[in-house]
Each structure stands twice: as structure tokens, then as C-alpha cells.
Amino acid sequence: MKHLILSISCLLFFACTQEQQENVQDTLLAKISDKKLYLSEIESLIPENSSKEDSNNVIRAYTENWAREAVILLEAEKSVAQDLDLNKLVKTYRESLLRHNFEKEHIEENLDSKVTDVQIETFYNENKDHFIVTDPLVKCWVSKIDNSASGLDAFKSNWKKGKKDKVKEFCEQNAEFHFLSENWQFLSETKMYFPEKLVSKLNLKPKTTFNGDQAGYSYFFYLKDIVKAGEVTPLEKVKDSIRKLILHQRKTALLDKYKEDLYEKNLKNKSVEFYIQ
């Protein structure tokens, strides 16, 4: 479909080009088969007060791009199906663009885009069945540190005690990577930070820590909290998604009402006439 739209757009462009009358005083820049590009068609693209060199660069770049597009279009015209109704396709595409732009403007002018926390919470409570966890969610800390790092023993003690400030300071200076997240994330993604041999050893009980060594590095894991598969996703995790859902519902309702009101108005004014039996 994308290729079709591109083709139609190109057809509209070149159709306009062909319809222009050739002026004997105009400068022909390029010609491919029956398609021609004149200087007058691109003069508006040249910045005012630009030097001759800059102007020539603009003309040269546009002309080359025009030629590239024209070559593709000519090849497409050769392979187009004989029974393809291009006029109908162009008409359908034009109507689609008009409708899309019209609906977009109507939404921008009339949509109530404010979504309160109360509305989000109400939606969440009424639709919890749609927010069931399939991949466990965790809040955790993760870090990887070279075993030769100075002060590693003290760090291990601070890690077990959950002393975030001291842990963060040490990690920023010594860790190969680390994150001390307060956000929910998928357990499957978190496991990717650990070597395969250590993944099975991770302790998945809240408020527990894990430390394992491999290939000269220490891997640390602290599980603050977990939401298991089958449980409801925490509101904070889906808050933004709910806001988008509410706005989408409003957009749909707004357009549906406007379309129906517009139709009824035209029926009442007898602007719509039916001739079927």
C-alpha cells in the first residue's frame, strides 16, 4: 500500500508538470522520455540573495532528485496492470487525505485532552482483567563489578543492607554497568544482564539479594518487589497506556457523534436524496 501511495503521489506531481505550458523563454533543466523539468518550476526553492554558486547547487540537487524519481516512475508505468484504474485510485486517495485532515482538525479543536488521575484510576479498577501480568514484573537493582575493584567487600555489605546512596556512589565509580531502578520492568529483560549460569540462581523473593561470580566479575541483584504472572499489573506501570486509551476512546466517540449529527442535519435539510425503491 505504501508503494501504491508513493506511486499516486508521484503521478500527481508529474501530471502537474506535464500540464504546464512550455515557454520558449524558460530554461529546460532535464528531460526523460516525455517528462520535462523547467527552471520556472523550482525557482521558488532557491533562497533569496543566494550566490550564483549556491543557486546552482540547489538547482543541480533538485534536478538530480527529479531525474531519479522520474526514472522510477517511468519503470512503474511500464509495469502497471492494464486494468488498473489510476483515476479511481487517485480519487480514493484524495478523499482519504481530505477526510483524514478534516477529522484531525475537528479533534484538535474539540477534544478534551485533559485526563485526571481519578479518571485513570477508575478506568484501571473497571478493567483490571485487561492488565493481567504474563511476564513477571520486578523492581530491582543490578550491577556488574570487576573483582579487582578496591572496596568491593564494603560494597557487598552495603548492597545487602540496601544502602542506596553508598551503593550508587560505588557503582558510578567502579561498575561495568548498573541500574538502581524504582520502576517496574520485565523480569525476562532483567535476566539478560546475567550470565546464563547465574540466572537460575537469582533469588526471586522480595527484599532479597544475590551475588555471583563469573569470569572475574561479580554480579549483584537486589529484588525490591515482584508481581508474578497471573497477578494484576500495578497502576503506575500502565498509567500512561491508560491515558492514551482514554484519549483514543474520546476521539472515537467525538468523531462518531459528529458524523452522525452531520448526517442527520443533512437529512433534515434534505441535502441528502435517495432514489432507491
Provide a descriptive summary of the structure in words:
With 277 residues, the protein is α+β, with helices and mostly antiparallel strands. The protein has three domains: 2-80, no CATH class; 112-122 and 233-249, no CATH class; 133-227, Chitinase A, domain 3. The chain is built from nine helices and seven strands, in the order H-E-E-H-H-H-E-H-H-E-E-H-H-E-E-H. Strands 3, 4, 5, 6 and 7 form a five-stranded antiparallel sheet that branches. It has a two-stranded antiparallel sheet with strand order 1-2. Helix 1 packs across helix 2 and helix 4 (117-126) crosses helix 9. The two termini are 37 Å apart. The model is unreliable at 1-16 and 18-22 (pLDDT under 50).
Question: What topology emerges from the helices and strands here?
Answer:
Elements: H1 2-19, E1 28-32, E2 35-38, H2 52-79, H3 86-110, H4 117-126, E3 137-146, H5 152-161, H6 164-174, E4 175-180, E5 185-186, H7 187-190, H8 196-199, E6 208-214, E7 217-227, H9 235-268
Antiparallel strand pairs: 1-2, 3-4, 3-5, 3-7, 6-7
Range of helix content = 40-55%
SSE order, as H and E?
Answer: HEEHHHEHHEEHHEEH
First and last CA, distance: 37 Å
Low-confidence stretches: 1-16, 18-22
SS summary, helix count: 9
Shape: extended
**Main sheet overview:** 5 strands, antiparallel
> Helix- and strand-based class?
alpha+beta
Assign the CATH class of the largest domain: Alpha Beta
- Counting DSSP E segments of at least 2 residues, the number of strands comes to 7
Q: Compute the CA-based radius of gyration.
A: 32 Å
